[in-house]
Amino acid sequence: MPLRVGLVQLRTPATHEAALAHVLPLVRQAAAEGAQLILTPECTNIVQKDRSKLALFSLEDDPVVQGLRAEAKALGVYLLIGSALVRRDDGKAANREILVGPDGGIVATYDKMHMFDVDLPNGETARESEVYQPGDEAVVVEATPAVKLGLTICYDLRFPALHRALALAGAEIIAAPAAFTRPTGEAHWHVLLRARAIETGSFVLAAAQGGFHEDGRGTYGHSLAINPWGKVIAELAHDEPGVLIADLDLSEAAKARAAIPALKNARAFTAPAPLAS
């Protein structure tokens, strides 16, 4: 029987209260349309560039996380919060993905591993490492009793080794929640997501932020569901908030890996020394 998933596309506001009011109706819509696993984007709880206004809560106290945990329990669904920006126990910040079970409990978390520290050609800059502490552990978790889900966040998409490790650990679905910039989204979003699906023989589910946010940031949208052969099976082809529903035949992962056994065929090799920077 297919697994019905719901991808929630957001335009998250600049306060936690407004963010919860924004996401809850869309989560409820996905559940009403039969989604058993619902995914939201990166930065589900707040989008705020001004660090002086970026008041973060602990995971246990974050109002958006707690509101979504209660909603998952009320709806009886698995809910993957693509990420919440939270304060760690040591006082540092983390960009944290959270899988919530149908009982409202936290099943697993993953802290974004790769920090988006870039200078884009259009003049935009980002220095995530100045705010967030990167994670150092890849995570595969059972997202329903029969589904293994690999967790990534946004910029992780550009690092194939992480996705390969998740697939080798049994992930049939890889989540790629994101707040992609508009320039990089237009250039690379579809091709990178399709490549990760093809390389790993996995479904890739990418719930996205979209549109122009209160803090002036522009995100690309275009939430996607891609099958293990690299085919786009569902897309929100815009940047407006909304819900994308897709039905996944999980046997397709095994079929794709049998047809192109790249995970098995890879060999260790000796690499040349890196060039000096």
Would you kindly provide a written description of the structure presented here, covering whatever features stand out?
This protein has one domain (3-265): Carbon-nitrogen hydrolase (Nitrilase/N-carbamoyl-D-aminoacid amidohydrolase). The strands form four sheets. Strands 5-4-3-2-1-16 form a six-stranded mixed beta sheet. The mean pLDDT is 95. The radius of gyration is 18 Å and the shape is globular. It contains six helices and 16 strands. The chain has helices at residues 16-32, 63-75, 160-168, 182-200, 251-259, 262-265, and strands at 3-9, 37-39, 78-87, 93-100, 106-111, 117-119, 125-127, 140-144, 147-151, 173-175, 203-206, 210-212, 218-220, 224-226, 232-235, 242-248. It is of the alpha/beta class and 277 residues long.
Write a short abstract of this structure:
The protein is α/β, with parallel strands linked by helices. 26% of the residues lie in helices and 28% in strands. The protein has a six-stranded mixed sheet with strand order 5-4-3-2-1-16. A six-stranded mixed sheet has the order 8-9-10-11-14-15, with helices on one face.
